[in-house]
Amino acid sequence: MKANSYIHGFITLSFFLIITSCAVKKYVPEDELLLNETYVDIKLDSLTDVKDVAALKAQLDLTISPQPNSTFLGMRPGLHYYYKVKRDSGGFIARFMNRKIGEKPVYLSDVEQEATKDLLRNRLENRGFFFSNITSKTIENEKQKEGSVTYQVSLPNPYRLKTYQVDNDSIPFYKVLENQLSDSPIKVGSRFDLSALTQERERIDNNLKSKGYYNFNSGFLIFQADTNQYDNRRFDLFLKLKKDVPTKAIKPYQIKAVKVYPYNVTSNDTVVIDSVHYADKDYIQESDFFRPDRLDPFILLEPGDLYNPTKSRATSRRLGSIGAYKFVNIEYKELQESNDSLNYLEASIYLSPLNKRAIRAELQAVTKSNDFTGPSLGLTFSNRNLFKGGEVLNIKATGTYEVQIAGNSDAGQTSTEFGLGADLIFPRMLAPINVDSDYFEYAIPKTKTSLSATILNRSQLYSLLTFSGSFGYTWQANRYVTHEFNPISINYVNLLNTSTEFEEILDENTFLQNSFEQQFISGLTYSFTYNELIDERKKALFYVNSTVDIAGNSISLLSKENEEGKNEFLGLEYAQYAKADVDFRFHYLLNKDSRIATRFFAGYGLPYGNSDVLPFSKQYFSGGAYSVRAFRTRSLGPGVYSPEDDDDRSFFDQSGNVRLEANVEYRFPIYSYFKGALFVDAGNVWTTAGSGLPGGEFSSNFYNEFGIGAGLGMRVDVQGFVIRFDLAAPWHDPSMPSGERWNFDIENPVFNFAIGYPF
Question: Can you spell out the DSSP letters for 391-430?
Fold first, then answer.
């Protein structure tokens, strides 16, 4: 398919739902005007002291109804198709579009200005602005068949808090409530705000529940405001209990007993139940399912503790992280016994297990950004409770066959890969020294051991045999922060059956040749992740992932020098390097469905000691569906390097030990599951070893050597599963001769297909 056809088809598909060819004003009845705009204009009295006027205006704007018909790029597609069907009957497409996005017209006559002013006055009173003066103004434009309404609000000085205290009628609960006021966000001088009082009730309710008040709820609290003592817009605020609050609501509860059911399968009546008392808890289960000593560290509920919903939620979260359970349910039962100061609860923890053993088969059609495509088959056997302590064993075998269908002169190459690997995950920390489990309050670390072997055969080029193993830990410090530390990480790579063509590539590039020589890598890795992208309640969301990879230092103590002056361990020449990178992302939510997403990546690898360059598997490359999308994978850089013949790119040597990238993307909804995007990407890789490709070395002129591209995309987003199509064209190509690099080559776009968002 020609490039222009790609572009035309892609743009047509992306904007099919929003393009309309005629205005809607010809359909508007003679005696009506379309509602074009409604907004609030706030004016302050000369003595009014209000600092958050913009926030107040935004809240009032949300109060106004009805809202005008939605627009896109100045057009009203929903209204257009509604009129098209209702007035002209329309064809099949118009009727279909009306069912999907059609909107009934909103006219100026639909606005009930007096009712809206009453609603605005109510909202202002809830925020402390009593006796506000509100007027409205209508503007009509007969030529455009549109009208707008402005509500002018003159704000007086708000009522502000003079004292905040507990009403004496709240005895005998007086002292408990008084203790809650010391850390209240409601301070002297605060503006009267009904929503703040609602939040204060919830805060006190949560605090009391954490102190054992199991039957208390926020509805038992009321506020009374008294302005009679003042004539300068001040008020006293009193907190009190409602009348007839049940006695059990103002009495704390203590956990008397904890019962744990590690094998809660209600449908199985033949299960032999065995009860074991361990760590002051009763474990009731099949005698051989889950060891109590392995399960107990995940449970924060202890007999003798006061009821605390925070500990209850944390226990549920920790138990759910084991990986052996499908459901975690914690129930509390009020016991009849009590004393003058306490009531008692019995806590029951019901754990519904997943199937202990499972076999999963995956058949996929793999399409990669380097133009290799083909089927992939994977078989995984899992045991989710191997040693009766929640250990998870995964054994996976994979087979992939791919054909390169486009991209360069290597099209038609085949690639086969077979792999066998095993992971054993312990839901606890295995270490030579004892680590206090109380240090990991949010979640208990997991210990993961992995072994794998793969054989990759790239036709006409080489075969690559890889063995890898690791031992390390992963844990969540809180909701946003995750740490991963692998003190042992080993890779052995053996390049086999190299073809004459590939040998020529190695001979021509010393940098690439050296990167394949050191086949043994032994080191440690650490990764830190801070992820706010899971929290959609904020407008500004941050994500940071930083990784450190250090290899060769420990085994250098046991190495011997060979005849070539290189150190070896067990007869293998090993790599020494330090590598660090950071991936920073910032998303700004414009509304529920639209956002600006940005990303910045920087990475640097330093070979030293036994290594002149980084191993090939540890080098950076640029271009592709998750990088600079206007360039194919590994086709960008290093630096301003340009192959002698564009049709003879090898792609194997276009890598480096320095990488910089930046991306910005505007994401917006199109219709239903279909989302759109406009983006700009920039980046490149460089070498610092002095033996790379011509023009590939990092220099002070690096900012002029970025590959830059722009494009548009479509995503099919079904509940977080994203299929992504991106079409991008180079804007600045550093491989071109100086003076010819700036050229928006829209006639030669690059099409990317991928799973998931790029960042």
Answer: -EEEEEEEEEEEEE-SSSTTTT-EEEEEEEEEEEEESS--
Q: Omega before 638 cis (within 30°)?
A: yes
DSSP state of 371: S
pTM of the model: 0.78
Buried b (16+ CB within 10 A) or exposed e, 395-406: ebebebbbebee
How many whole angstroms separate alpha carbon 641 and alpha carbon 511?
14
**Digit-coded pLDDT (tens) for 275-320:** 899 999 999 998 778 999 999 999 999 999 999 999 999 999 999 9
Strand residues in 354-404 grouped as ranges (E): 357-367, 372-383, 392-404
Instruction: Give the pairing type, strands 146-155 and 34-44.
Output: parallel
On whether the CB atoms of residues 17 and 78 are closer than 8 A, the answer is: no
Structural tokens at position 719: 């509940």
Mind listing the pLDDT tens digit for each residue in 672-719?
A: 888 999 999 999 999 987 666 788 899 989 999 999 999 999 999 887
SS3 for 98?
A: helix
Q: In what order do the strands lie in the sheet with 325-338?
A: 273-278, 281-286, 253-261, 343-353, 325-338
Distance CA 60, CA 167 (A): 33
Cβ atoms of residues 94 and 85 within 8 Å: yes
Beta-carbon contacts of 160 under 8 Å, excluding residues fewer than 6 positions away, are 128, 189, 190, 191, 192, 233, 234, 235
Q: For residues 136 and 117, is the Cβ–Cβ distance under 8 A?
A: yes
Written as one letter, the residue type at 195 is S
Closest alpha carbon to 349 in 281, 252, 431 = 281
Task: Identify residue 447 by its one-letter amino acid code.
Answer: T
Going by their DSSP bridges, the two strands 253-261 and 281-286 should be labelled as parallel
Separation in Å, CA 194 to CA 48, 125, 128, 227: 20, 9, 8, 16
- Residue pair 305/287 in contact (Cβ under 8 Å)? The answer is no
Residue with tokens 């107990």: 296
Q: Report the distance separating Cα 359 and Cα 207, nearest Å.
A: 46
The CA-based diameter of the chain, rounded to the nearest angstrom, is 97
Give CA–CA dist 529/478, Å, rounded.
11
In 3-state terms, what secondary structure has residue 318? Answer: helix
Q: Which helix (H) or strand (E) holds 77?
A: helix 77-88
Q: List, in order, residues 6 or more apart from 118 with CB less than 8 Å away.
A: none
CA atoms within 13 A on the CB side of 69: 26
Here the tokens at position 275 are 């009860």
Nearest alpha-carbon partner for 502 in 461, 459, 465:
461
Among the listed residues 750, 504, 727, the one whose alpha carbon sits nearest the alpha carbon of residue 631: 750
Tell me which range, 78-82, 361-365, 523-527, is most confidently predicted by mean pLDDT: 523-527
Q: How far is CA 560 from CA 151, 297, 437, 518, 555, in A?
A: 84, 46, 41, 15, 10
